[in-house]
Design goal:
Number of helices: 3
Distance between the termini: 78 Å
Number of strands: 25
Radius of gyration: 26 Å
Structural class: mainly beta
Order of helices and strands: HEEEHHEEEEEEEEEEEEEEEEEEEEEE
Strand order of the largest sheet: 3-2-1-25
Largest sheet: 4 strands, antiparallel
Shape: globular
Length: 402
């Protein structure tokens, strides 16, 4: 009898132990993870603060306003269904900032000069002022969350230029000058994706052109990032850790492994992303593809297709791997309309793109004239819709469609 009870006790003890183990191995209830803000394509390693400027289904625009004693950049977040304004941010332009090139001072290359031109009488510092070229380089002025804007600051007399930055909502003369060294030649200032550093092209005392960066906070020590080809081409900074590409029309594919770009004497429009900072050259270009008949790159439609403005004036989806057309032509204006259409961006879902319609070589039109912006389906034959609001002027540039 005693042995039977003992055996029974052993069995019960074993079952108790197994129960304890099973109970203790139950997974703990996990707290729900908040939905991340929409990442800027190609920069998905960054966690962005939630705001109307980082949420999916938002279009972001920028414009420059100037008065007798002030200048500022307005950045606006829009609802693309109703074209209602969700939020607006202001970046005051410091008195010393280069936002216009005028007689008597050395010309400065900065996308801010492009944004504040307001008339074709003021030439672009980069030569080509088609909107397919301007929109991505103006976008590079800001971090992903649109909290900081990079500027180039002139010394009195114009003998030196320094990279700097302005915070959203700052006072007119509240800015960060990242260097006070005499003789600095820093141009093409743009923000890193996370807003923690400003990148620029600069000239060494020996006359060599380089790409550099300075931290937005702290000591602002110069970090050399790689070679540059002078100041003539703009910079785009992307990736984590960040790196810079010096070229025109730089747009990252959604997956971040390829980009569109153009540069003098370089074959192709689509390339593998560069592994280090530097200019797009025949030597640095990887896996090049030439998009047939493409004169302006509007943006990516997925990872394998690119929307282009073609030499005929229509828009067309191109295969990024073969360079051949992957869709029918999309005509925004007619051959006898007396106008042209230039594209600025493609929506994140690849279903629409935004164009500006204007007279040839005159995107600003008459002073006080109204803008003609349209949201156009990326599928040929579907109807475009007009985009209209009092805040949208001929000087407005569309930067993001999240």
């Amino acid at each position: 009898m005693r042995s039977a009870l003992t055996g029974k006790a052993v069995v019960l003890a074993v079952l108790a132990v197994l129960c304890v183990q099973a109970c203790s191995s139950q997974p703990k209830e996990e707290k729900p993870t908040p939905e991340p803000s929409a990442p800027y394509r190609g920069n998905r390693g960054y966690t962005l603060p939630d705001s109307p400027f980082t949420r999916e289904g938002t279009v972001v625009t920028a414009s420059c306003s100037m008065g007798a004693r002030y200048a500022a950049v307005s950045v606006q977040a829009w609802d693309p269904e109703r074209w209602e304004l969700r939020e607006e941010r202001y970046f005051p332009i410091p008195t010393d900032a280069a936002f216009s090139n005028y007689p008597g001072v050395e010309a400065v290359n900065s996308p801010l000069v492009d944004l504040c031109r307001q008339t074709t009488d003021n030439p672009s510092p980069y030569g080509v002022d088609d909107l397919e070229y301007m929109a991505p380089r103006i976008r590079a002025l800001f971090d992903l969350a649109f909290t900081r804007m990079a500027v180039v600051l002139r010394e009195p007399g114009g003998e030196a230029t320094h990279a700097g930055l302005v915070e959203n909502g700052a006072d007119q003369d509240d800015f960060v000058r990242l260097s006070d060294a005499t003789g600095d030649d820093e141009q093409n200032a743009v923000m890193s994706p996370d807003g923690r550093s400003v990148w620029f092209t600069y000239t060494t005392p020996a006359g060599e052109h380089r790409i550099g960066s300075r931290a937005a906070e702290g000591g602002h020590r110069l970090s050399d990032e790689g070679p540059a080809t002078g100041h003539d081409l703009p910079l785009t900074v992307s990736g984590k850790p960040p790196h810079a590409v010096q070229a025109n029309m730089v747009r990252l594919a959604p997956g971040g492994h390829r980009l569109t770009a153009t540069a003098p004497k370089v074959f192709g429009n689509v390339f593998g992303t560069l592994h280090s900072s530097g200019p797009l050259t025949a030597r640095s270009a990887r896996v090049a593809t030439l998009l047939s008949g493409c004169v302006g790159i509007v943006g990516w439609i997925g990872d394998d297709r690119v929307l282009c403005r073609t030499s005929s004036g229509s828009f067309r989806t191109m295969d990024a791997r073969t360079g051949r057309a992957a869709g029918a032509p999309i005509d925004v204006v007619g051959p006898r309309d007396g106008t042209v259409a230039e594209g600025m961006l493609v929506s994140a879902d690849g279903e629409k793109f935004i164009v500006s319609v204007h007279r040839p070589n005159d995107p600003y039109g008459e002073p006080g004239g109204s803008a003609d912006f349209r949201a156009v389906p990326t599928t040929a034959g579907e109807e475009a819709t007009s985009i209209s609001h009092d805040f949208l002027t001929t000087g407005t540039v569309f930067l993001d469609w999240l």
